[in-house]
Design brief:
The protein has about 190 residues and is mostly beta strands. The chain is built from three helices and ten strands, in the order H-E-E-E-E-E-E-E-E-E-E-H-H. Strands 1-2-3-4-5-8-9-10 form an eight-stranded antiparallel barrel.
């Protein structure tokens, strides 16, 4: 698959991942007491295991919810592709605002959709890859997302109502959002988000 085909494929895949079908009801465990999501990062997962550890998804495609403060978030969608001698990373960033209560997490997007494409290619005889980076922003009307708040022991996690995320779950990654924000700023993404 050539580079241009990969970009088109990844764009369509991530644009589809940023949309949500009609919601449906699901069953879940009892919600936990009030918490703050500020400065936390949640990642797509397959839910929680019996030890209340999140089950990672074995894939090069994953999504994160970076909660910047008590009201703003950035949804990041990462796709890694590549063949021999090349490394291709395609990521999209969809910022917005959120509301969290005792039962639900609701995400509302602000219409900005930023694509970050990084392509590294190592040619025969070269040691260091040649890297090209492109940023592109556009306005995309994304529907809001709603998650049911769940708990396992002292850990909280969320299950999407509608399940457009990988297995419908997002779990706390353990990284502070400030690490992601620092990367967004260094890569030139932050100024396009808010």
């Amino acid at each position: 698959m050539d580079f241009q085909t990969k970009i088109i494929y990844c764009f369509l895949f991530t644009l589809t991942a940023c949309t949500s079908p009609e919601t449906k009801q699901d069953s879940a465990s009892t919600p936990t007491p009030s918490i703050s999501l500020s400065n936390k990062v949640f990642i797509t997962s397959a839910g929680m295991d019996s030890a209340c550890e999140f089950k990672e998804l074995p894939t090069d495609f994953y999504q994160e919810l970076v909660f910047v403060n008590d009201s703003e978030f950035v949804r990041t969608i990462h796709t890694c592709c590549g063949g021999p001698g090349e490394d291709f990373v395609f990521a999209t960033y969809c910022p917005g605002t959120y509301k969290l209560d005792e039962k639900y997490l609701e995400l509302t997007f602000n219409g900005v959709y930023v694509e970050h494409i990084e392509h590294s290619l190592t040619r025969p005889g070269e040691i260091e890859p040649q890297t090209t980076t492109r940023l592109h922003d556009q306005v995309v009307n994304l529907p809001p997302l709603k998650f049911k708040r769940l708990s396992c022991g002292r850990e909280i996690y969320f299950q999407e109502i509608g399940e457009t995320f990988a297995d419908g779950f997002v779990s706390y990654k353990g990284d502070p959002a400030t690490t992601s924000v620092t990367y967004f700023k260094a890569a030139g993404i932050w100024g396009k988000l808010f």
